[in-house]
Amino acid sequence: MLLFRSEEHLERWLGRHGHERGAVMSLVQIWGLAQAWYADKLTPGWRRHTPDEAEAVFESLGLTGDFWRLR
Amino acid sequence: MSDVRLALFELFAELGRAPAPEEVAERAGISAPEVRDAYEALHDGHVIVLHPETRDLWMAHPFSAVPTAYRTHIGEREWFANCIWDALGICALLDGDGTVHTECADCGEPLSLAVRGGEVHGEGVAHFLVPAAHFWDDIGFT
Predict the structure, then answer these.
(1) How far is B22 from chain A (nearest CA, A)?
(2) Chain A neighbors of B86, CB-CB under 8 A
(3) Which of A29, A31, A48, A70 to mutate to test the interface with B (most CBs of B within 10 A)?
(4) Are B127 and A28 within 8 A, CB to CB?
């Protein structure tokens, strides 16, 4: 997961490397994902998200569609 | 194994670097070989990532045990992160104001993001190349 200065820089990078566009996230979305994913990782009872839980996190941040489907 | 996981993450957070297996062993109250055995199980469970050849610690998300282009500062401490998700994840994990230093993946110009009072400030867009279902196919590339 890479950070780009702008959409223009992302498009230039995709073209230079011949990559298809994946999923683009705003800073607010990636920060929300970081909070949902890691805020509890220093607690003794932590466990990995189940696929259902992970998809629910993605959906709560507006990350929907095939790209974010886990099953 | 959960004690090893917690000891590893606590020490990584405290030290600003990957702890040695001996340090994790002391915290968890077991031997260093037992820590390495637990690391293998945690690797198999996609909780941490070991280097494919040396079996040394490589990633304990959000922390990176090796230098990367993503650095997170909180107070006097600094950690390497695996990607932009993880760089912000260190602020989330430690519930602290911090600054992420990285560079634009296209042009290489420095970029900084600040987390202050639970909000992120800065400019940029994040891009995920690999779909979620395939994150772990090649986690180093992801």
Answers:
(1) 20
(2) 1, 34, 38
(3) A31
(4) no
Look at A70 and B90 and tell me if their CB atoms are within 8 Å: no
Domains with residue ranges and CATH for chain B: 2-60 (1.10.10.10), 66-142 (3.30.450.410)
The answer to the question of residue A64 being in a domain is yes
Distance (Å, whole) CA A71 – CA B77: 39
Cβ atoms of B17 and B7 within 8 Å: the answer is: no
Judged by average pLDDT, the poorest of A57-61, B18-22, B111-115 is A57-61
> Is A37's CB within 8 Å of B123's CB?
no
Residue B130 has a pLDDT of: 84
Residues in B closer than 8 angstroms to A54, CB to CB, are 132
Q: How many domains does chain A have?
A: 1
Model ipTM? 0.94
> Has residue A12 been placed in a domain?
no
What does the alpha-carbon distance between residue B68 and residue B32 come to, in Å, rounded to a whole number? 26
What secondary structure does DSSP assign to B72-126, as a single string? EEETTEEEEESSHHHHHHHHHHHT--EEEEEE-TTT--EEEEEEETTEEES--EE
pLDDT digits (tens, 9 = 90+) for B43-102: 999 999 999 999 999 999 999 999 999 999 999 999 999 999 999 999 999 988 999 999
